[in-house]
Amino acid sequence: MLTGECLQCIEAQCAAEGGAFQGIGRPQKPLFRLIRCYNTAMLEGLLWLSAGLWVLFCIQAVLNRLLLADLSKRPATAGNDWPFVSIVAPARDEEKCIRQAVSSFCRQEYPAFEVIVVDDRSTDATPTILADLQHEFVNLRVIQGQDPAAGWLGKPNALETGRKQARGDWLLFVDADVVYAPDLLRRAVDYCLAKRLAMLFAFPRLITKGVLEAALMSSLVLVCLAVYPMLLVNWTRWKRLAVGGGAFNLVRRDALEACGAFESLKGAVVDDVMLGRTVKGAGFPLHLALAGPLIHVRMYEGARATVRGFAKNTYPGVVQRPWFLPLLFVVGALVSLLPYFGLVHGFAVGVVCVPACIALALMHLVLAGLAWWHRQPWYITFLNPVREVGWWWIVLRSMWRYHREGLIWRGRNYGSILSR
Q1: What pLDDT is attached to residue 325?
Q2: Strands, sheet with 140-144, edge to edge from the N-terminal-most edge strand
Q3: pLDDT score recorded for residue 9
Q4: CA distances from 112 to 116, 333, 351, 401 (A)
């Protein structure tokens, strides 16, 4: 059925062309008018779908902000019988950030914990820095890692090495470029005990510098806190609705070992996310919480490093799901690019494209809200097309590199190992 807006569009086009095709001196036939009208109706329908998706994203962003626990606003109970916690951090060539990160781990205001850093055969100044830190912090242990065995990736191998050496009833797995506030561990453990959890993932505050780096990294904030139904992670037992991350994965030891620990994740490219799925899939309760200023991390330094870092695991992480990449491109174009095209198309034919205006208004509202709530640069509000095209490039580069060279990261070539 043709909408009134569609008919207005056709009338405007016909009036502009004087009833004839551009460049052809004969009247336009009814068949061509019908085809053009249906094309316009299809475009309008897609734009309404895009606007509807942005309504959904807006609702989810608000609900996630209001209903997800914020650890920074949750005081820890002073009377808890605190369990012993082992903080386990794998490190390979992390000389730029490891001093600040490990120091923040060791300075936690928590009564019973240890810090274990697994030096995964670093070739830079990481071992020297860790040796210095051992003289400063008595609760720090450094373990020399070994090259992974066949079928293992480097990071799961290092995590398993640290797990075997850990003494804690709870294990906190964290990357060696993350910085913690001193009261983070106390607040997180208190939350886990109060909710009777087996695992907690805390979403960090992402630090970026530069326009392109901020635009690319804004995908994590947008997808995790607006597109993905994060609240359902806490409210359902469906293992597909599970999360995890290298910034903060706190797991109860018995639950981890019941799942096979990292032996079950030895080939996982995105091991931190898969850890959450494995724990929840085994029937153990998992929650997501916001960390706010308690955790901050700059994942990559600069746009080039961001592209290279995400290209490492994007395609290998979905290589066993061939339907996912076409869906990614189609949905990305629908929600991030089509509203701009609809707006320009409407101006070109002299009409106001209502669904495009609604979609763009909601898009910028969501991005502005995420930037405000999660302390991201304000200009990501206007960089959604740049973010989308940038991620298309990351996916294509990841696909090309994987099929040409296999999985390569931190100087190790794993070949065409398939991620779980």
Answers
A1: 84
A2: 140-144, 113-119, 85-91, 170-173, 249-252, 199-203, 286-290
A3: 52
A4: 14, 50, 67, 45
Question: How far apart are alpha carbons 42 and 358 in whole angstroms?
Answer: 17
Residue 24: the pLDDT is: 38
User: pLDDT value at position 21?
Assistant: 34
- The H or E element containing residue 268 is none
- Closest of 307, 326, 296, 301 to residue 216, by C-alpha: 307
Backbone angles phi, psi at 141, to 5 degrees: -120, 135
CATH topology of domain 68-313: Spore Coat Polysaccharide Biosynthesis Protein SpsA; Chain A (3.90.550)
The stretches in the chain having pLDDT less than 70 are 1-38, 78-79, 319-320, 415-420
Tokens of 316: 């290998």
- Here the tokens at position 335 are 């929600």
Which residues 6+ apart lie within 8 Å of 323 measured at CB? Answer: none
The burial of 28, by beta-carbon neighbours within 10 Å (0-12 exposed, 13-18 middle, 19 or more buried), is given as middle
Whole-number Å distance between alpha carbons of 356 and 338: 8
The model's pLDDT over 80-136, given as tens digits with 9 standing for 90+, comes to 789 999 999 999 999 999 999 999 999 999 999 999 999 999 999 999 999 999 999
- Strands (DSSP E) found in 174-261: 178-180, 199-203, 205-206, 249-252
Q: Is the dihedral of CA 286, 292, 294, 297 positive or negative?
A: positive
C-alpha distances in angstroms, 46 versus 157, 346, 388? 46, 14, 18
Instruction: Quickly list DSSP for 54-83.
Output: HHHHHHHHHHHHHHS-BGGGSPPPTT--PP
Domain spans, the chain? 1-38, 68-313
